[in-house]
Amino acid sequence: MALPKINPTTTQAWKKLQEHHQNTKDTHLRELFADDTDRGPKFTLEWGDFLVDYSKNRITSETISLLMELAEEVDLKAAISSYFGGDAINQTEGRGVLHTALRAKQGDEVFVDRKNVVPEVYAVKEKIKGFTEEIISGKRTGFTNKAFTDVVNIGIGGSDLGPAMVTEALSYYKNHLKTHFVSNVDGDHVQEVLKELNPETTLFVVVSKTFTTQETLSNALTIKEWFLQKASEQDIALHFAAVSTNTEKIAEFGIDAANVFPMWDWVGGRFSLWSAVGLSIALAVGFENFDELLSGAHGMDEHFRNTPFEANIPVILAMLSVWYNNFYGAETEAIIPYSQYLSRFSAYLQQGIMESNGKSMDRAGNRTSYETGTIIWGEPGTNSQHAFFQLIHQGTKLIPADFIGFKESLHGNVDHHNKLMANFFAQTEALMNGKTPEEVKRELEQQNLSQEQLESLLPFKVFEGNKPTNTLLLKKLNPKNLGALIALYEHKIFVQGIIWNIFSYDQWGVELGKQLAKTILTEIENSTIGNHDSSTLHLLQKFKK
Ligand code: F6P
Protein backbone atom coordinates (compact mmCIF):
# COMPACT_ATOMS: atom_id res chain seq x y z
CA MET A 1 0.00 0.00 0.00
CA ALA A 2 1.28 3.48 -0.88
CA LEU A 3 1.83 5.89 1.99
CA PRO A 4 -0.97 8.39 2.52
CA LYS A 5 -0.40 11.95 1.35
CA ILE A 6 -1.70 13.95 4.25
CA ASN A 7 -0.43 17.47 4.72
CA PRO A 8 0.09 17.54 8.51
CA THR A 9 -0.84 21.22 8.76
CA THR A 10 -4.36 20.42 7.57
CA THR A 11 -5.07 18.06 10.45
CA GLN A 12 -7.18 18.96 13.46
CA ALA A 13 -4.33 17.98 15.76
CA TRP A 14 -1.92 20.42 14.09
CA LYS A 15 -4.32 23.30 14.66
CA LYS A 16 -4.82 22.25 18.26
CA LEU A 17 -1.05 21.99 18.72
CA GLN A 18 -0.59 25.53 17.36
CA GLU A 19 -3.08 26.85 19.85
CA HIS A 20 -1.63 24.75 22.64
CA HIS A 21 1.83 26.08 21.80
CA GLN A 22 0.57 29.66 22.07
CA ASN A 23 -0.92 28.90 25.48
CA THR A 24 2.06 27.05 26.94
CA LYS A 25 5.17 28.45 25.27
CA ASP A 26 5.95 30.86 28.09
CA THR A 27 5.77 28.27 30.84
CA HIS A 28 9.22 27.50 32.21
CA LEU A 29 10.26 23.91 32.82
CA ARG A 30 11.01 24.93 36.39
CA GLU A 31 7.32 25.71 36.88
CA LEU A 32 6.25 22.42 35.34
CA PHE A 33 8.51 20.52 37.74
CA ALA A 34 7.34 22.61 40.71
CA ASP A 35 3.68 21.93 39.84
CA ASP A 36 4.09 18.18 39.66
CA THR A 37 6.57 16.49 41.97
CA ASP A 38 6.04 13.23 40.11
CA ARG A 39 6.85 14.65 36.70
CA GLY A 40 10.16 12.75 36.29
CA PRO A 41 8.77 9.20 36.58
CA LYS A 42 5.53 10.26 34.88
CA PHE A 43 7.33 11.12 31.66
CA THR A 44 9.70 8.15 31.71
CA LEU A 45 9.56 5.03 29.57
CA GLU A 46 11.31 1.82 30.50
CA TRP A 47 11.96 -0.99 28.09
CA GLY A 48 14.56 -3.75 28.46
CA ASP A 49 17.88 -2.12 29.37
CA PHE A 50 16.56 1.31 28.32
CA LEU A 51 15.22 4.10 30.43
CA VAL A 52 14.07 7.18 28.56
CA ASP A 53 13.25 10.21 30.66
CA TYR A 54 11.57 12.87 28.53
CA SER A 55 10.25 14.93 31.41
CA LYS A 56 12.73 17.77 30.79
CA ASN A 57 10.78 18.82 27.71
CA ARG A 58 8.46 21.78 27.30
CA ILE A 59 5.42 19.58 27.41
CA THR A 60 2.38 18.74 29.49
CA SER A 61 0.22 15.62 29.30
CA GLU A 62 -1.95 17.54 26.87
CA THR A 63 1.02 18.13 24.55
CA ILE A 64 1.65 14.41 24.42
CA SER A 65 -2.03 13.62 23.77
CA LEU A 66 -2.14 16.13 20.93
CA LEU A 67 1.09 14.83 19.41
CA MET A 68 -0.37 11.32 19.56
CA GLU A 69 -3.53 12.62 17.90
CA LEU A 70 -1.37 14.01 15.11
CA ALA A 71 0.31 10.63 14.66
CA GLU A 72 -3.13 8.99 14.46
CA GLU A 73 -4.48 11.56 12.03
CA VAL A 74 -1.66 11.07 9.52
CA ASP A 75 -2.24 7.33 9.83
CA LEU A 76 1.08 6.37 11.32
CA LYS A 77 -0.30 2.94 12.26
CA ALA A 78 -0.99 1.95 8.66
CA ALA A 79 2.36 3.41 7.60
CA ILE A 80 4.15 1.21 10.15
CA SER A 81 2.53 -1.90 8.66
CA SER A 82 3.54 -0.79 5.16
CA TYR A 83 7.12 -0.26 6.36
CA PHE A 84 7.47 -3.68 7.98
CA GLY A 85 5.36 -5.35 5.31
CA GLY A 86 7.75 -4.50 2.48
CA ASP A 87 5.44 -2.14 0.56
CA ALA A 88 7.27 0.06 -1.93
CA ILE A 89 7.32 3.04 0.44
CA ASN A 90 10.51 4.29 -1.20
CA GLN A 91 8.16 5.36 -3.96
CA THR A 92 10.46 7.54 -6.06
CA GLU A 93 12.85 4.59 -6.45
CA GLY A 94 10.05 2.01 -6.58
CA ARG A 95 11.35 -0.07 -3.67
CA GLY A 96 10.48 -1.38 -0.27
CA VAL A 97 12.44 -0.34 2.80
CA LEU A 98 13.31 -3.50 4.63
CA HIS A 99 16.38 -3.09 6.77
CA THR A 100 14.15 -4.59 9.48
CA ALA A 101 14.08 -7.87 7.51
CA LEU A 102 17.86 -8.10 7.95
CA ARG A 103 17.36 -8.63 11.66
CA ALA A 104 14.19 -10.73 11.47
CA LYS A 105 14.18 -14.04 13.35
CA GLN A 106 14.86 -17.21 11.40
CA GLY A 107 11.52 -18.59 10.34
CA ASP A 108 9.90 -15.14 10.10
CA GLU A 109 8.34 -14.26 6.78
CA VAL A 110 8.90 -10.96 4.98
CA PHE A 111 7.73 -10.78 1.40
CA VAL A 112 9.19 -8.77 -1.46
CA ASP A 113 7.39 -9.36 -4.76
CA ARG A 114 5.65 -12.34 -3.17
CA LYS A 115 8.96 -13.96 -2.23
CA ASN A 116 9.94 -14.51 1.39
CA VAL A 117 13.38 -12.85 1.69
CA VAL A 118 14.27 -14.11 5.17
CA PRO A 119 15.88 -17.38 3.92
CA GLU A 120 18.18 -15.33 1.62
CA VAL A 121 19.07 -13.03 4.50
CA TYR A 122 20.02 -16.05 6.59
CA ALA A 123 22.03 -17.59 3.76
CA VAL A 124 24.14 -14.42 3.59
CA LYS A 125 24.45 -14.39 7.39
CA GLU A 126 25.78 -17.96 7.23
CA LYS A 127 28.30 -16.88 4.64
CA ILE A 128 29.40 -13.95 6.84
CA LYS A 129 29.72 -16.36 9.76
CA GLY A 130 31.86 -18.85 7.87
CA PHE A 131 34.07 -16.21 6.26
CA THR A 132 34.68 -14.21 9.44
CA GLU A 133 35.42 -17.32 11.50
CA GLU A 134 38.03 -18.45 8.99
CA ILE A 135 39.70 -15.04 8.90
CA ILE A 136 39.65 -14.51 12.67
CA SER A 137 40.91 -18.00 13.48
CA GLY A 138 43.69 -17.72 10.93
CA LYS A 139 42.41 -20.71 8.95
CA ARG A 140 42.20 -18.52 5.87
CA THR A 141 45.53 -16.93 5.13
CA GLY A 142 47.06 -14.46 2.71
CA PHE A 143 49.28 -15.06 -0.32
CA THR A 144 52.35 -15.84 1.78
CA ASN A 145 50.37 -18.14 4.04
CA LYS A 146 50.33 -15.73 6.94
CA ALA A 147 47.21 -15.09 9.02
CA PHE A 148 45.42 -11.79 8.52
CA THR A 149 46.15 -8.98 10.95
CA ASP A 150 44.34 -6.03 9.35
CA VAL A 151 41.03 -5.38 7.63
CA VAL A 152 40.35 -2.34 5.45
CA ASN A 153 36.78 -1.32 4.70
CA ILE A 154 36.65 0.62 1.44
CA GLY A 155 33.33 2.46 1.08
CA ILE A 156 31.64 5.79 1.66
CA GLY A 157 28.38 7.11 3.14
CA GLY A 158 26.26 4.20 4.32
CA SER A 159 28.97 1.81 3.18
CA ASP A 160 31.40 3.39 5.62
CA LEU A 161 29.69 5.32 8.40
CA GLY A 162 27.74 2.42 9.91
CA PRO A 163 30.63 -0.06 10.01
CA ALA A 164 33.05 2.67 11.17
CA MET A 165 30.72 3.90 13.92
CA VAL A 166 29.86 0.41 15.18
CA THR A 167 33.42 -0.94 15.15
CA GLU A 168 34.47 2.09 17.16
CA ALA A 169 31.47 1.75 19.49
CA LEU A 170 32.26 -1.93 20.10
CA SER A 171 36.04 -1.52 20.48
CA TYR A 172 35.80 -3.18 23.88
CA TYR A 173 34.61 -6.40 22.20
CA LYS A 174 37.22 -6.36 19.43
CA ASN A 175 39.54 -9.22 18.59
CA HIS A 176 43.14 -9.03 17.33
CA LEU A 177 42.20 -7.78 13.84
CA LYS A 178 42.90 -4.09 13.31
CA THR A 179 40.20 -2.36 11.30
CA HIS A 180 40.77 0.61 9.01
CA PHE A 181 38.38 2.68 6.96
CA VAL A 182 39.14 4.37 3.66
CA SER A 183 36.30 6.56 2.42
CA ASN A 184 37.34 9.97 1.14
CA VAL A 185 38.47 10.28 -2.47
CA ASP A 186 41.22 12.46 -1.02
CA GLY A 187 44.29 10.42 -1.96
CA ASP A 188 46.00 11.43 1.24
CA HIS A 189 43.40 9.43 3.15
CA VAL A 190 44.15 6.15 1.38
CA GLN A 191 47.92 6.77 1.43
CA GLU A 192 47.90 7.39 5.19
CA VAL A 193 46.03 4.11 5.74
CA LEU A 194 48.28 2.13 3.38
CA LYS A 195 51.35 3.42 5.21
CA GLU A 196 50.45 1.22 8.16
CA LEU A 197 49.71 -1.94 6.19
CA ASN A 198 51.47 -5.08 5.07
CA PRO A 199 49.87 -6.49 1.89
CA GLU A 200 50.67 -10.05 3.02
CA THR A 201 48.40 -9.81 6.06
CA THR A 202 45.68 -7.37 5.01
CA LEU A 203 42.15 -8.16 3.90
CA PHE A 204 40.31 -5.55 1.84
CA VAL A 205 36.53 -5.34 1.86
CA VAL A 206 35.12 -3.20 -0.93
CA VAL A 207 31.63 -2.09 0.05
CA SER A 208 29.39 -0.33 -2.41
CA LYS A 209 25.74 -1.02 -2.92
CA THR A 210 25.90 0.26 -6.49
CA PHE A 211 29.58 -0.41 -7.17
CA THR A 212 29.62 2.79 -9.20
CA THR A 213 30.58 5.28 -6.50
CA GLN A 214 33.56 7.36 -7.62
CA GLU A 215 35.23 7.53 -4.21
CA THR A 216 35.02 3.81 -3.51
CA LEU A 217 36.10 2.67 -6.96
CA SER A 218 39.05 5.10 -7.01
CA ASN A 219 40.21 3.96 -3.58
CA ALA A 220 39.72 0.28 -4.45
CA LEU A 221 41.77 0.68 -7.66
CA THR A 222 44.57 2.55 -5.88
CA ILE A 223 44.67 -0.16 -3.23
CA LYS A 224 44.64 -2.91 -5.85
CA GLU A 225 47.63 -1.31 -7.62
CA TRP A 226 49.48 -1.00 -4.32
CA PHE A 227 48.70 -4.64 -3.55
CA LEU A 228 49.90 -5.82 -6.98
CA GLN A 229 53.31 -4.26 -6.38
CA LYS A 230 53.91 -7.15 -3.98
CA ALA A 231 51.42 -9.79 -5.07
CA SER A 232 50.10 -11.35 -8.25
CA GLU A 233 46.66 -11.05 -9.93
CA GLN A 234 45.56 -14.42 -8.60
CA ASP A 235 46.33 -13.34 -5.02
CA ILE A 236 43.48 -10.84 -5.29
CA ALA A 237 41.12 -13.75 -4.68
CA LEU A 238 42.73 -14.26 -1.27
CA HIS A 239 42.80 -10.63 -0.16
CA PHE A 240 39.74 -8.90 -1.60
CA ALA A 241 36.07 -9.32 -0.72
CA ALA A 242 33.15 -7.26 -1.95
CA VAL A 243 29.67 -6.35 -0.76
CA SER A 244 27.28 -5.09 -3.41
CA THR A 245 24.10 -5.57 -5.41
CA ASN A 246 26.12 -5.18 -8.62
CA THR A 247 27.75 -8.57 -9.25
CA GLU A 248 28.73 -7.68 -12.84
CA LYS A 249 30.86 -4.70 -11.78
CA ILE A 250 32.50 -6.74 -9.02
CA ALA A 251 33.54 -9.38 -11.54
CA GLU A 252 35.01 -6.64 -13.77
CA PHE A 253 37.06 -5.46 -10.82
CA GLY A 254 38.45 -8.99 -10.48
CA ILE A 255 37.09 -10.08 -7.12
CA ASP A 256 36.52 -13.82 -6.75
CA ALA A 257 32.81 -14.71 -6.76
CA ALA A 258 33.39 -16.80 -3.63
CA ASN A 259 34.24 -13.60 -1.74
CA VAL A 260 31.20 -11.66 -2.90
CA PHE A 261 28.49 -10.88 -0.39
CA PRO A 262 25.20 -9.84 -1.93
CA MET A 263 22.86 -7.18 -0.69
CA TRP A 264 19.47 -6.11 -1.91
CA ASP A 265 17.95 -2.98 -3.38
CA TRP A 266 15.33 -2.96 -0.61
CA VAL A 267 18.08 -2.01 1.83
CA GLY A 268 19.01 1.67 1.78
CA GLY A 269 22.72 2.47 2.05
CA ARG A 270 22.32 4.43 5.30
CA PHE A 271 20.40 1.55 6.90
CA SER A 272 22.63 -1.22 5.62
CA LEU A 273 25.05 -2.00 8.44
CA TRP A 274 22.82 -4.97 9.36
CA SER A 275 23.56 -6.62 6.01
CA ALA A 276 26.91 -7.83 4.67
CA VAL A 277 27.84 -4.13 4.69
CA GLY A 278 28.56 -4.94 8.32
CA LEU A 279 31.17 -7.54 7.30
CA SER A 280 33.99 -5.49 8.81
CA ILE A 281 31.97 -5.27 12.06
CA ALA A 282 31.64 -9.07 12.13
CA LEU A 283 35.35 -9.39 11.39
CA ALA A 284 36.26 -6.95 14.15
CA VAL A 285 34.03 -8.29 16.94
CA GLY A 286 33.16 -11.78 15.75
CA PHE A 287 29.94 -13.10 14.26
CA GLU A 288 28.24 -13.72 17.61
CA ASN A 289 28.55 -10.10 18.62
CA PHE A 290 27.37 -9.02 15.17
CA ASP A 291 24.35 -11.26 15.60
CA GLU A 292 23.70 -9.76 19.04
CA LEU A 293 23.70 -6.31 17.43
CA LEU A 294 21.04 -7.55 15.02
CA SER A 295 19.03 -9.13 17.79
CA GLY A 296 19.04 -5.85 19.76
CA ALA A 297 17.75 -4.04 16.68
CA HIS A 298 15.07 -6.70 16.23
CA GLY A 299 13.97 -6.16 19.83
CA MET A 300 13.52 -2.45 19.12
CA ASP A 301 11.64 -3.30 15.91
CA GLU A 302 9.19 -5.36 17.91
CA HIS A 303 8.82 -2.64 20.53
CA PHE A 304 8.16 -0.06 17.82
CA ARG A 305 5.71 -2.23 15.94
CA ASN A 306 3.68 -3.43 18.86
CA THR A 307 3.67 -0.74 21.52
CA PRO A 308 0.91 1.86 21.81
CA PHE A 309 2.17 5.25 20.69
CA GLU A 310 2.21 6.85 24.14
CA ALA A 311 4.59 4.15 25.45
CA ASN A 312 6.55 3.79 22.23
CA ILE A 313 10.10 5.16 22.53
CA PRO A 314 10.76 5.96 18.85
CA VAL A 315 7.28 7.50 18.47
CA ILE A 316 7.64 9.69 21.56
CA LEU A 317 11.13 10.90 20.59
CA ALA A 318 10.04 11.56 17.01
CA MET A 319 6.95 13.51 18.07
CA LEU A 320 8.92 15.60 20.57
CA SER A 321 11.30 16.48 17.76
CA VAL A 322 8.32 17.50 15.58
CA TRP A 323 7.07 19.64 18.49
CA TYR A 324 10.29 21.65 18.61
CA ASN A 325 10.91 21.69 14.87
CA ASN A 326 7.46 22.76 13.78
CA PHE A 327 6.03 24.69 16.71
CA TYR A 328 9.08 26.20 18.44
CA GLY A 329 11.07 26.68 15.22
CA ALA A 330 14.11 24.79 16.53
CA GLU A 331 16.42 24.06 13.61
CA THR A 332 18.97 21.72 15.11
CA GLU A 333 19.18 18.85 17.55
CA ALA A 334 22.25 17.79 19.45
CA ILE A 335 23.08 14.19 20.23
CA ILE A 336 25.49 13.89 23.12
CA PRO A 337 26.62 10.40 24.10
CA TYR A 338 28.45 10.18 27.40
CA SER A 339 30.72 7.45 26.11
CA GLN A 340 33.89 7.94 24.15
CA TYR A 341 33.07 4.70 22.32
CA LEU A 342 30.17 6.54 20.68
CA SER A 343 32.37 9.28 19.27
CA ARG A 344 31.14 8.58 15.72
CA PHE A 345 27.49 8.21 16.68
CA SER A 346 26.27 11.66 15.69
CA ALA A 347 28.30 11.61 12.46
CA TYR A 348 26.57 8.34 11.63
CA LEU A 349 23.15 9.77 12.48
CA GLN A 350 23.84 12.84 10.39
CA GLN A 351 23.61 10.68 7.28
CA GLY A 352 20.69 8.63 8.59
CA ILE A 353 18.64 11.62 9.64
CA MET A 354 19.63 14.37 7.21
CA GLU A 355 19.88 12.26 4.05
CA SER A 356 16.46 10.81 4.90
CA ASN A 357 14.46 13.78 6.04
CA GLY A 358 16.30 16.65 4.37
CA LYS A 359 13.49 17.02 1.83
CA SER A 360 11.28 19.92 0.78
CA MET A 361 8.85 18.15 -1.56
CA ASP A 362 5.89 16.46 0.04
CA ARG A 363 4.62 13.07 -1.10
CA ALA A 364 2.29 14.73 -3.59
CA GLY A 365 5.22 16.57 -5.20
CA ASN A 366 4.42 19.98 -3.71
CA ARG A 367 6.84 22.16 -1.79
CA THR A 368 6.16 21.81 1.91
CA SER A 369 4.92 24.94 3.62
CA TYR A 370 6.40 23.75 6.91
CA GLU A 371 9.84 22.76 8.15
CA THR A 372 11.11 19.19 7.75
CA GLY A 373 14.43 17.51 8.62
CA THR A 374 16.37 18.80 11.58
CA ILE A 375 20.11 19.48 11.50
CA ILE A 376 21.95 16.94 13.61
CA TRP A 377 25.21 17.48 15.38
CA GLY A 378 27.03 16.40 18.48
CA GLU A 379 30.14 15.05 20.13
CA PRO A 380 30.63 12.95 23.22
CA GLY A 381 30.33 14.47 26.67
CA THR A 382 32.30 15.55 28.61
CA ASN A 383 34.47 16.88 25.73
CA SER A 384 31.53 18.73 24.21
CA GLN A 385 30.89 20.52 27.52
CA HIS A 386 34.28 22.17 27.05
CA ALA A 387 33.56 23.01 23.43
CA PHE A 388 30.04 24.06 22.44
CA PHE A 389 27.88 23.76 25.54
CA GLN A 390 28.26 27.49 26.18
CA LEU A 391 25.98 28.09 23.18
CA ILE A 392 23.40 25.56 24.31
CA HIS A 393 23.27 27.09 27.81
CA GLN A 394 23.41 30.80 27.04
CA GLY A 395 23.13 31.27 23.26
CA THR A 396 20.07 32.60 21.48
CA LYS A 397 19.02 29.34 19.84
CA LEU A 398 16.79 26.59 21.15
CA ILE A 399 18.66 23.31 20.81
CA PRO A 400 16.86 20.21 22.04
CA ALA A 401 19.40 17.56 22.96
CA ASP A 402 19.49 13.82 23.54
CA PHE A 403 21.82 12.75 26.32
CA ILE A 404 22.83 9.10 26.07
CA GLY A 405 24.58 7.47 29.01
CA PHE A 406 25.26 4.06 30.52
CA LYS A 407 24.85 2.80 34.07
CA GLU A 408 27.95 0.63 33.87
CA SER A 409 31.37 1.40 32.46
CA LEU A 410 32.96 -1.40 30.46
CA HIS A 411 36.39 -1.41 32.05
CA GLY A 412 34.84 -0.92 35.49
CA ASN A 413 36.67 2.27 36.44
CA VAL A 414 34.08 3.38 38.99
CA ASP A 415 35.81 6.62 39.93
CA HIS A 416 35.87 7.85 36.32
CA HIS A 417 32.41 6.55 35.57
CA ASN A 418 30.90 8.36 38.55
CA LYS A 419 32.53 11.58 37.42
CA LEU A 420 31.34 11.07 33.85
CA MET A 421 27.79 10.37 34.93
CA ALA A 422 27.74 13.20 37.47
CA ASN A 423 28.39 15.49 34.51
CA PHE A 424 25.72 13.71 32.48
CA PHE A 425 23.02 14.32 35.09
CA ALA A 426 24.30 17.78 36.02
CA GLN A 427 24.08 19.08 32.47
CA THR A 428 20.45 18.17 31.87
CA GLU A 429 19.53 19.57 35.28
CA ALA A 430 21.43 22.79 34.58
CA LEU A 431 19.92 23.10 31.11
CA MET A 432 16.45 22.67 32.55
CA ASN A 433 16.70 24.83 35.68
CA GLY A 434 19.20 27.44 34.63
CA LYS A 435 20.17 29.96 37.30
CA THR A 436 17.89 32.87 38.20
CA PRO A 437 19.10 36.45 38.84
CA GLU A 438 18.22 35.94 42.52
CA GLU A 439 20.37 32.83 42.72
CA VAL A 440 23.26 34.57 40.96
CA LYS A 441 22.90 37.56 43.30
CA ARG A 442 23.07 35.34 46.38
CA GLU A 443 26.20 33.69 45.03
CA LEU A 444 27.91 36.97 44.17
CA GLU A 445 27.11 38.39 47.58
CA GLN A 446 29.45 35.79 49.07
CA GLN A 447 32.34 37.11 47.02
CA ASN A 448 33.19 40.45 48.60
CA LEU A 449 32.30 42.47 45.52
CA SER A 450 31.25 46.09 45.47
CA GLN A 451 27.59 46.72 44.68
CA GLU A 452 28.63 48.14 41.31
CA GLN A 453 30.75 45.08 40.45
CA LEU A 454 27.95 42.79 41.51
CA GLU A 455 25.38 44.51 39.35
CA SER A 456 27.59 44.68 36.28
CA LEU A 457 28.52 41.01 36.50
CA LEU A 458 25.10 39.65 37.35
CA PRO A 459 23.43 39.52 33.88
CA PHE A 460 26.28 37.50 32.40
CA LYS A 461 26.01 34.85 35.06
CA VAL A 462 22.29 34.25 34.65
CA PHE A 463 21.20 31.05 32.89
CA GLU A 464 17.68 31.18 31.48
CA GLY A 465 17.35 27.41 31.62
CA ASN A 466 14.22 25.91 30.04
CA LYS A 467 16.41 24.00 27.56
CA PRO A 468 14.81 20.71 26.58
CA THR A 469 16.63 17.40 26.83
CA ASN A 470 15.87 13.69 26.66
CA THR A 471 17.86 11.39 28.88
CA LEU A 472 18.51 7.92 27.50
CA LEU A 473 20.02 5.87 30.29
CA LEU A 474 21.04 2.37 29.19
CA LYS A 475 22.38 -0.40 31.35
CA LYS A 476 25.57 -1.08 29.45
CA LEU A 477 27.15 -0.50 26.05
CA ASN A 478 27.00 -3.98 24.59
CA PRO A 479 26.23 -5.14 21.02
CA LYS A 480 22.59 -5.80 21.84
CA ASN A 481 21.89 -2.40 23.36
CA LEU A 482 23.81 -0.65 20.61
CA GLY A 483 21.69 -2.44 18.00
CA ALA A 484 18.53 -1.33 19.78
CA LEU A 485 19.78 2.25 20.08
CA ILE A 486 20.55 2.52 16.37
CA ALA A 487 17.19 0.98 15.47
CA LEU A 488 15.47 3.45 17.79
CA TYR A 489 16.84 6.36 15.73
CA GLU A 490 15.98 4.56 12.47
CA HIS A 491 12.36 4.37 13.54
CA LYS A 492 12.40 7.96 14.75
CA ILE A 493 13.46 8.93 11.21
CA PHE A 494 10.58 6.91 9.77
CA VAL A 495 7.96 8.44 12.07
CA GLN A 496 9.10 11.97 11.29
CA GLY A 497 9.05 11.32 7.56
CA ILE A 498 5.47 10.09 7.88
CA ILE A 499 4.38 13.13 9.88
CA TRP A 500 6.09 15.52 7.45
CA ASN A 501 4.53 13.76 4.46
CA ILE A 502 7.89 13.33 2.72
CA PHE A 503 9.74 10.40 1.17
CA SER A 504 12.51 9.53 3.62
CA TYR A 505 14.21 6.77 1.67
CA ASP A 506 15.52 8.40 -1.51
CA GLN A 507 18.42 10.86 -1.74
CA TRP A 508 18.13 12.71 -5.03
CA GLY A 509 19.76 15.72 -3.42
CA VAL A 510 23.21 14.14 -3.62
CA GLU A 511 23.06 13.64 -7.40
CA LEU A 512 23.58 17.15 -8.80
CA GLY A 513 26.99 17.64 -7.21
CA LYS A 514 28.07 14.18 -8.43
CA GLN A 515 27.06 15.04 -12.02
CA LEU A 516 28.83 18.39 -12.04
CA ALA A 517 31.96 16.85 -10.52
CA LYS A 518 32.14 14.46 -13.50
CA THR A 519 32.07 17.32 -16.00
CA ILE A 520 34.57 19.37 -14.04
CA LEU A 521 36.91 16.39 -13.71
CA THR A 522 37.17 16.10 -17.51
CA GLU A 523 37.78 19.83 -17.70
CA ILE A 524 40.54 19.58 -15.11
CA GLU A 525 42.13 16.54 -16.72
CA ASN A 526 41.98 17.27 -20.42
CA SER A 527 39.89 19.74 -22.22
CA THR A 528 39.32 23.40 -21.96
CA ILE A 529 37.03 24.71 -19.31
CA GLY A 530 33.41 24.92 -20.43
CA ASN A 531 30.59 27.20 -19.45
CA HIS A 532 30.48 28.16 -15.80
CA ASP A 533 29.51 31.12 -13.69
CA SER A 534 32.33 33.66 -13.24
CA SER A 535 33.21 32.42 -9.76
CA THR A 536 33.56 28.73 -10.69
CA LEU A 537 35.35 29.65 -13.93
CA HIS A 538 37.85 31.87 -12.14
CA LEU A 539 38.49 29.23 -9.47
CA LEU A 540 39.07 26.53 -12.10
CA GLN A 541 41.47 28.75 -14.02
CA LYS A 542 43.45 29.44 -10.85
CA PHE A 543 43.47 25.73 -9.95
CA LYS A 544 44.73 24.64 -13.37
CA LYS A 545 47.45 27.29 -13.59
O1 F6P B 1 25.77 9.85 -0.92
C1 F6P B 1 24.81 9.13 -1.58
C2 F6P B 1 24.92 7.66 -1.39
O2 F6P B 1 24.15 7.07 -2.38
C3 F6P B 1 24.50 7.17 -0.01
O3 F6P B 1 23.14 7.09 0.15
C4 F6P B 1 25.21 5.87 0.05
O4 F6P B 1 25.24 5.38 1.35
C5 F6P B 1 26.56 6.26 -0.49
O5 F6P B 1 26.25 7.17 -1.53
C6 F6P B 1 27.42 5.13 -1.00
O6 F6P B 1 26.81 4.43 -2.04
P1 F6P B 1 27.31 3.00 -2.50
O7 F6P B 1 27.16 2.07 -1.35
O8 F6P B 1 26.45 2.64 -3.66
O9 F6P B 1 28.76 3.14 -2.91
From TrEMBL:
Keyword field: Cytoplasm, Gluconeogenesis, Glycolysis, Isomerase
Taxonomic lineage: Bacteria, Pseudomonadati, Bacteroidota, Flavobacteriia, Flavobacteriales
Entry keyword annotation includes Magnesium: no
Cellular compartments annotated: Cytoplasm
Matches recorded under NCBIfam families: PRK00179.1 (NF001211)
Protein's name in the database: Glucose-6-phosphate isomerase
GO cellular component labels: cytosol
Pathway named in the protein's UniProt entry: Carbohydrate degradation; glycolysis; D-glyceraldehyde 3-phosphate and glycerone phosphate from D-glucose: step 2/4; Carbohydrate biosynthesis; gluconeogenesis
Catalyzed chemical reaction(s): alpha-D-glucose 6-phosphate = beta-D-fructose 6-phosphate
InterPro entries cross-referenced by the UniProt entry: G6P_Isomerase (IPR001672), G6P_Isomerase_C (IPR023096), Phosphoglucose_isomerase_CS (IPR018189), SIS_dom_sf (IPR046348), SIS_PGI_1 (IPR035476), SIS_PGI_2 (IPR035482)
Role played: Catalyzes the reversible isomerization of glucose-6-phosphate to fructose-6-phosphate.
UniProt family annotation: Belongs to the GPI family.
CDD domains registered for this protein in UniProt: SIS_PGI_1 (cd05015), SIS_PGI_2 (cd05016)
Gene Ontology MF terms in the entry: carbohydrate derivative binding; glucose-6-phosphate isomerase activity; monosaccharide binding
Species per Swiss-Prot/TrEMBL record: Flagellimonas flava
Translocase in keyword set: no
Any one of the GO BP annotations: glycolytic process
HAMAP family assigned to the protein according to its UniProt record, in alphabetical order: G6P_isomerase (MF_00473)
This enzyme's EC code(s): 5.3.1.9
Active-site annotation: E355 (proton donor), H386, K514
